[in-house]
Write a structure and sequence with these properties.
Bound molecules: adenosine-5'-triphosphate
Distance between the termini: 62 Å
Subunit structure: Homotetramer.
Strand content: 15-25%
CATH architecture of the largest domain: 3-Layer(aba) Sandwich
Shape: elongated
Largest sheet: 7 strands, mixed
Order of helices and strands: EHEHEHEHEHEHEHEHEHEEHH
Helix content: 40-55%
EC number: 2.7.1.11
CATH class of the largest domain: Alpha Beta
Number of domains: 2
Number of helices: 11
Function: Catalyzes the phosphorylation of D-fructose 6-phosphate to fructose 1,6-bisphosphate by ATP, the first committing step of glycolysis.
Catalytic activity: beta-D-fructose 6-phosphate + ATP = beta-D-fructose 1,6-bisphosphate + ADP + H(+)
Pathway: Carbohydrate degradation; glycolysis; D-glyceraldehyde 3-phosphate and glycerone phosphate from D-glucose: step 3/4
Length: 328
């Protein structure tokens, strides 16, 4: 029989993402709605190990739906990777009286949560909060849409200066293992080329595509590069390579960096966070455990961690073809 849940703990872990506050708010408010106590842990798993927590009632999460970052802070915890660390966390949970957890984070957070839950029999539900969108159990992760909009608006600005000076810009965006941000922002910003970790197009093709751009009379070129691109050169080396081989180009590099994580979440991310977190609380109350919640074909679905963390996370390579056609 499922144990009775009186107190739910919530934490944000791994890289921060816009919309995490909307997610915390939804967990706190849904808990209040169902007359359950809600406790927030600071700095992800590390705060749980240290028992660093606060009580979250409906009013303690006022006015945070629109703010970036996370009021609970986020962190990566080496200690939680060890059994001893997780044991300390489990002891703290029983000391504080937390019966179940909502974990807001990425794939690492889910892996840690799954192990923890299996070792100490504590129900956990994962909510995908990461700008990378690299989780199979959901079509969209919280923060991804906002990050895309941030990237698009930065590229639009760079395009203005690029076309004023007839320049070629390499723009590096986040995505060490997944090219979702590069691919979608590249298409959305009308990039001439998009380089992603999932597809090594090779340097020859890049040069050929840029030559074609020049011949067709383009006044500027934008190449969006995912930081984990497999072409074998980082964005600065790529720029040097192109300068050597296409001396007619005036090449510049912009690394967008951490600005991609910040800012007020988009309406899409706020709504997504709200929907997923209400569901997470309801699943715990229904006795569910060890699943992640996600949005699949516009429906909120629970998926086992195993399924949700499958390698195949479905980058849409068709977008590369679309980009090719449209950069003619
Ligand atoms: P992002 O996708 O934004 O990087 P993430 O959740 O994948 O977010 P990670 O740093 O991979 O970020 O994981 C967050 C934390 O989860 C780690 O710092 C660690 O404490 C815990 N964790 C990750 N993997 C495991 C694991 N296999 N076992 C136990 N704990 C883990």
């Amino acid at each position: 029989m499922a144990r009775e849940i009186r107190t739910i703990g919530v934490l944000t872990s791994g890289g921060d993402a816009p919309g995490m506050n909307a997610a915390i708010r939804a967990v706190a408010r849904a808990s209040a709605y169902y007359n359950i106590k809600c406790v927030g842990f600071y700095r992800g798993y590390q705060g749980m190990i240290e028992g660093d927590h606060c009580v979250l009632n409906a009013r303690s999460v006022r006015n945070i739906i629109s703010t970036g970052g996370t009021i609970l802070k986020s962190a990566r915890s080496k200690e939680f990777m060890t059994y001893e660390g997780r044991k300390k966390a489990a002891d703290k949970l029983s000391e504080i009286g937390v019966d179940a957890l909502v974990l807001i984070g990425g794939d690492g957070t889910f892996r840690g949560g799954q192990t923890f839950s299996e070792e100490f029999n504590i129900p956990v539900i994962g909510v995908p909060g990461t700008i990378d969108n690299d989780i199979a159990g959901t079509n969209f992760t919280i923060g991804y849409d906002t990050a895309l909009n941030t990237v698009i608006s930065a590229i639009d600005k760079i395009r203005d200066t690029a076309s004023s000076h007839n320049r070629l810009f390499f723009i590096e965006v986040m995505g060490r293992d997944a090219g979702f941000i590069a691919l979608n922002s590249g298409v959305g910003a009308g990039a001439e080329e998009i380089l992603i970790p999932e597809e090594d197009l090779g340097l020859d093709r890049l040069l050929e595509s840029l030559r074609r751009s020049k011949r067709s009379g383009k006044s500027s070129s934008i190449v969006v590069v995912s930081e984990g691109d497999k072409i074998g050169k980082n964005v600065y080396e790529l720029a040097d390579y192109v300068t050597e081989n296409l001396p007619n180009y005036d090449v510049r590099v912009t690394v967008l960096g951490h600005m991609q994580r910040g800012g007020s979440p988009s309406c899409f991310d706020r709504t997504l966070a709200s929907r997923l977190c209400v569901k997470a609380v309801e699943l715990l109350l229904d006795g569910e455990k060890n699943v992640m919640v996600g949005i699949l074909n516009n429906e909120i679905k629970a998926t086992s961690f195993e399924e949700g963390l499958k390698e195949e996370h479905g980058i849409n390579k068709e977008l590369l073809r679309i980009s090719d056609i449209l950069s003619t």
